[in-house]
Design goal:
Length: 111
């Protein structure tokens, strides 16, 4: 898994399209938290599913992972809150059903 760096957007704005990188075939990790967004650009002709792994359990039962379908030729922003933080690594695990023509980036608002 590749470790995606978080880009901080200043109050004056930030160009983000030049900060997107190829999605990792084995998935990526993100530093989660309040205001953190995963940008997913799907330049493919078919939709792709992004999965945020939820590491927690309730009464011994696994909490379902969050899946988001990104339609063909669209860009989505997906919140990556602290609930996706893996206690062992401190990072959130993100996987993709396919990475053909999919680019990603992580962003949060600065102060």
């Amino acid at each position: 898994m590749a470790s995606l760096a978080t880009n901080v957007a200043p109050l004056t704005g930030l160009r983000f399209d030049d900060k997107l990188t190829a999605a990792g075939a084995g998935g990526d990790t993100v530093s989660p938290g309040a205001g953190v967004l995963l940008a997913v650009k799907n330049a493919d002709s078919t939709s792709h599913t992004v999965t945020l792994v939820t590491p927690g359990t309730v009464d011994g039962l696994a909490i379902a992972d969050r899946t988001v379908t990104v339609p063909a030729a669209q860009t989505y922003l997906i919140p990556v809150t602290s609930r996706y933080r893996n206690p062992a690594t401190g990072r959130a695990n993100v996987t993709y059903d396919g990475v053909t023509a999919v680019t990603v980036g992580v962003f949060r608002v600065g102060s």
